[in-house]
């Protein structure tokens, strides 16, 4: 609760400061202070209790997992805004507003990590998405940014409509918006006849919700929006959208199916013939296929990263298939691994003039530190051992194997992980083994380089000791 | 067939007809006007379900304000050039198949639900329900659903910021 | 005496959709009357078509240019802000009906809601979003 309230307050503070504070340099400082306070408030809630005791009527439930996810999300946002602050200032005139919108997005994510009611799911999704539509179109004079914003808005609102339709059907099937009723599952709260079984309305509703959520996390076959929108929006906001926001959507997705796991197991749906696990497997394989295969053919690194984000979403979806403790731990590792690496890559990308693969030629000679950091980020994304990315993928595969019966999905995952190495290494290859000069659009400061190296070191250190992250989940 | 059933069927036919007209109208302004008709007939349905507040809000906000926004958007476009959208046959086919499958699911849902819930409470309570009355709705909104209600204002604030960021001249 | 009578009767009357019958009748009658009048006047009135009569009436000024021009986004900005505040006002209605029973809690809730909107309003004013000329 602390985080939700504070993030809303800081969003308002940023709004007001953009209206009253004339000094444009001050915004990022205010935002950073706000983010750090947010982090502290969230940690405070994790270890003791909320500051305000607001009756939520079971609408929100703050679990250790959700709160810890919040902490990670805030930490990644701090990293993001420290690393890309100059780029945010370059997007346009409304710097204070951009930060305000980022705070509002965070507010939505915090709701999504703790919702216990389909109504809150909807509000969380909306609070998370609407600021993003605006951030996508923040570069107003750029036609591509406008197009991306409009596309994102139309498709996003359409998918939210599908989600809402699903929620309505689930409400019709169960008679309640709540996911858990005083520890009891919702389906038991309706009159005895259909105890524990999902009714047809319920199943249809869950399928529609699944569709809407798949769109939000860019899982195939609802991934088609992602490349255009990630490519068109300003690079800074792409990195925010592709990492922290996507992780937030994932948490919501996992939370929904984890709470309703009992009903979505096969036995209880036998009468209707919906095999949810098979549905998830198909989505996973399709996502991995589309993301990885299309990423191979991309010449623009930004576009390649957009497709790779779809592929990575496929890996994160493994946690949806298994829904056990390993999957939860793996998801947290994945959020950290993927977010840090992608924020780093996009941060460096935003400084460059040429986004194509050729633009990276010879980076190792002219900018050795940046090339080194880039290489580490790419290695982590492809899941090479000794980086955190390896453990993230390892935990995900482990979780699927533990579930049993879905070995083939894990094998497909490994195959695609190997394929992904190809296109990540192409960038490393151009940086280190090709001749050329890298032209930077904006100068790189010393602090930026130091931060890039620090992020690379984080990836390596966590790769050596992944337990550091997971320990906080329990202690 | 009582008067309620007759009104229901008339309203349903009206809703479906105007919804289809929204899609098939060539002129976007006509589409918007048909959409207004759709909203009005849906409001009629709400009144039938005794959800008066929803009916009024639907008329005021959707048929009134949002439709004005729609008209503004249409006027922002350039309507002089008659650009016929390129229609891909495969795209159409895909749309028909996926839409048809959704329709199939929804129809079977309603049918099986009606069978399954024999002797159970009705799906919709026409004309008698009291949940939709303004007094009850307001009571629930300001007690049980107070938190989502307040969070909605965050949504509105971000919409305001967005309107300024996108709509204001640089 | 009379007012208490109405207040006592109002909730009962509002609980059944059949109480909308007079309203429905009135709507039907109003629409029917207008349609009938238009139809009858078209039927009975004399028809003398001249070019001047068929031209668009623009307050006596000769028409020029094309009406189908993209218009300024300023209108849209005002309209969307109007919708936001319109929705805010809508929420007062269920609050007002339950004003007594919600007591102070409800008051604080609506105060918070309005306060947040007020902040938004201050922001809009400060950003000169409602200024027509700029």
Automatic annotation (TrEMBL), chain A:
Its EC number is 7.1.1.-. Its main location: membrane. It catalyses: a quinone + NADH + 5 H(+)(in) = a quinol + NAD(+) + 4 H(+)(out). Keywords: Cell membrane, Membrane, NAD, Quinone, Translocase, Transmembrane, Transmembrane helix, Transport. GO terms for molecular function: NADH dehydrogenase (quinone) (non-electrogenic) activity; NADH dehydrogenase (ubiquinone) activity; quinone binding. One of its GO terms (cellular component) is plasma membrane. It is a multi-pass membrane protein. Residues 116-419 form the NADH:quinone oxidoreductase/Mrp antiporter transmembrane domain. GO terms for biological process: ATP synthesis coupled electron transport. It is found in: Cell membrane; Endomembrane system; Membrane. Pfam families: Proton_antipo_M. The keyword Repeat does not apply. The chain crosses the membrane at residues 62-83, 95-112, 118-138, 150-171, 203-224, 236-258, 278-297, 304-324, 330-350, 371-394, 406-429, 450-474. PANTHER family: NADH DEHYDROGENASE. NDH-1 shuttles electrons from NADH, via FMN and iron-sulfur (Fe-S) centers, to quinones in the respiratory chain. The immediate electron acceptor for the enzyme in this species is believed to be a menaquinone. Couples the redox reaction to proton translocation (for every two electrons transferred, four hydrogen ions are translocated across the cytoplasmic membrane), and thus conserves the redox energy in a proton gradient. NDH-1 is composed of 14 different subunits. Subunits NuoA, H, J, K, L, M, N constitute the membrane sector of the complex. Belongs to the complex I subunit 2 family. NCBIfam families: NDH_I_N. This is NADH-quinone oxidoreductase subunit N. It comes from Arachidicoccus rhizosphaerae. The gene is nuoN.
TrEMBL record, chain B:
Its main location: membrane. One of its GO terms (cellular component) is plasma membrane. The keyword Membrane applies. It is a multi-pass membrane protein. Coiled coil: none annotated. Belongs to the complex I subunit 6 family. GO terms for molecular function: NADH dehydrogenase (ubiquinone) activity; quinone binding. The keyword NAD applies. The chain crosses the membrane at residues 6-24, 31-49, 55-77, 89-110, 145-166. InterPro entries: NADH_UbQ/plastoQ_OxRdtase_su6, Nuo/plastoQ_OxRdtase_6_NuoJ. This is NADH-quinone oxidoreductase subunit J. Its EC number is 7.1.1.-. The lineage of its organism: Bacteria, Pseudomonadati, Bacteroidota, Chitinophagia, Chitinophagales.
From TrEMBL, chain C:
Keywords: Cell membrane, Membrane, NAD, Quinone, Translocase, Transmembrane, Transmembrane helix, Transport. It is found in: Cell membrane; Membrane. Its EC number is 7.1.1.-. GO terms for molecular function: NADH dehydrogenase (quinone) (non-electrogenic) activity; NADH dehydrogenase (ubiquinone) activity; quinone binding. It is an enzyme of class 7 (translocase). The chain crosses the membrane at residues 24-44, 75-95, 107-125. It catalyses: a quinone + NADH + 5 H(+)(in) = a quinol + NAD(+) + 4 H(+)(out). GO terms for cellular component: NADH dehydrogenase complex; plasma membrane. NDH-1 is composed of 14 different subunits. Subunits NuoA, H, J, K, L, M, N constitute the membrane sector of the complex. This is NADH-quinone oxidoreductase subunit A. The gene is nuoA.
């Amino acid at each position: 609760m602390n985080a939700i309230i504070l993030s809303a307050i800081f969003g308002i503070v940023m709004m007001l400061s953009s209206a009253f504070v004339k000094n444009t340099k001050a915004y990022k400082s205010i935002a950073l202070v706000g983010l750090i306070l947010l982090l502290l408030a969230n940690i405070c809630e994790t270890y003791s209790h909320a500051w305000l005791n607001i009756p939520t009527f079971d609408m929100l439930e703050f679990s250790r997992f959700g709160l810890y996810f919040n902490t990670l999300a805030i930490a990644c946002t701090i990293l993001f805004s420290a690393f890309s602050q100059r780029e945010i200032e370059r997007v346009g005139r409304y710097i204070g507003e951009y930060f305000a919108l980022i705070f509002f997005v965070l507010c939505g994510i915090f709701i999504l990590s703790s919702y216990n009611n389909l109504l809150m799911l909807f509000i969380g999704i909306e609070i998370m998405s609407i600021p993003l539509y605006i951030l996508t179109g923040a570069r107003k004079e750029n036609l591509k940014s406008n197009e991306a914003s409009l596309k994102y808005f139309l498709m996003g609102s359409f998918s939210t409509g599908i989600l809402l339709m699903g929620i309505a059907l689930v409400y019709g099937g169960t008679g309640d918006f709540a996911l858990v009723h005083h520890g009891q599952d919702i389906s038991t709260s309706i009159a005895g006849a259909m105890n524990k079984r999902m009714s047809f309305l319920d199943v249809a509703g869950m399928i529609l919700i699944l569709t809407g959520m798949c769109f939000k996390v860019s899982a195939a076959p609802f991934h088609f929006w992602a490349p255009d929108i990630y490519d068109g929006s300003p690079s800074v906001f792409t990195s925010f959208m592709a990492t922290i926001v996507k992780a937030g959507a994932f948490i919501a997705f996992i939370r929904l199916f984890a709470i309703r796991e009992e009903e979505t197991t096969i036995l209880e749906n036998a009468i209707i013939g919906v095999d949810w696990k098979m549905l998830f497997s198909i989505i996973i394989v399709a996502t991995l296929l589309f993301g990885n295969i299309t990423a191979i053919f991309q010449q623009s690194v930004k576009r390649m990263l957009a497709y790779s984000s779809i592929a990575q979403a496929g890996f994160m979806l493994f946690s949806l298939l298994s829904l056990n403790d390993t999957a939860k731990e793996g998801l947290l590792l994945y959020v950290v691994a993927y977010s840090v690496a992608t924020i780093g890559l996009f941060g460096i990308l935003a400084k460059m003039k040429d986004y194509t693969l050729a633009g990276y030629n010879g980076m190792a000679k002219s900018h050795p530190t940046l090339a080194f950091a880039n290489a580490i980020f790419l290695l982590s994304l492809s899941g090479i051992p000794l980086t955190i990315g390896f453990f993230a993928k390892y935990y995900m595969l482990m979780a699927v194997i533990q579930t049993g019966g879905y070995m083939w999905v894990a094998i497909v995952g490994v195959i695609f992980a190997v394929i992904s190495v190809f296109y990540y290494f192409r960038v490393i290859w151009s940086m280190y083994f090709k001749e050329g000069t890298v032209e930077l659009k904006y100068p790189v400061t010393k602090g930026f380089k130091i931060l890039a190296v620090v992020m690379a070191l984080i990836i390596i250190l966590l790769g050596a000791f992944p337990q550091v992250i997971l320990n906080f989940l329990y202690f | 067939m009582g008067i309620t059933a007759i009104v229901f069927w008339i309203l349903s036919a009206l809703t479906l007809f105007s919804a289809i007209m929204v899609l098939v109208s060539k002129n976007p302004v006509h589409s918007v006007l048909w959409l207004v008709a759709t909203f009005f007939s849906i409001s009629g349905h709400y009144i039938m379900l005794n959800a008066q507040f929803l009916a009024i809000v639907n008329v005021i906000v959707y048929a009134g304000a949002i439709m004005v926004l729609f008209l503004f958007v249409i006027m922002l476009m350039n309507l002089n050039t008659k650009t016929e959208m390129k229609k891909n046959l495969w795209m159409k086919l895909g749309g028909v198949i996926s839409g048809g499958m959704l329709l199939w699911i929804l129809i079977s849902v309603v049918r099986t639900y009606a069978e399954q819930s024999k002797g159970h409470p009705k799906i919709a309570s026409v004309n008698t329900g009291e949940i939709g009355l303004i007094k009850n709705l307001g009571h629930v909104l300001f007690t049980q659903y107070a938190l989502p209600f307040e969070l909605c204002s965050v949504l509105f604030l971000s919409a305001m910021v967005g309107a300024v960021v996108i709509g204001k001249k640089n | 005496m009379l007012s208490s009578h109405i207040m006592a009767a109002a909730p009962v009357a509002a609980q059944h959709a059949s109480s909308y019958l007079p309203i429905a009748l009135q709507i039907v009658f109003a629409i029917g009357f207008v349609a009938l009048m238009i139809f009858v006047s078209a039927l009975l009135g004399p028809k003398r078509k001249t070019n001047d009569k068929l031209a668009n009436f623009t307050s006596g000024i000769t028409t020029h240019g094309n009406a189908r021009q993209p218009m300024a986004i300023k209108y849209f900005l005002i309209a969307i802000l109007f919708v936001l505040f319109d929705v805010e006002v809508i929420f007062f209605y269920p609050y007002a009906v339950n004003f007594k029973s919600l007591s102070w809690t409800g008051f604080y809730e609506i105060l918070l809601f309005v306060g947040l909107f007020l902040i938004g309003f201050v922001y809009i004013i400060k950003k000169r979003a409602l200024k027509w000329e700029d």
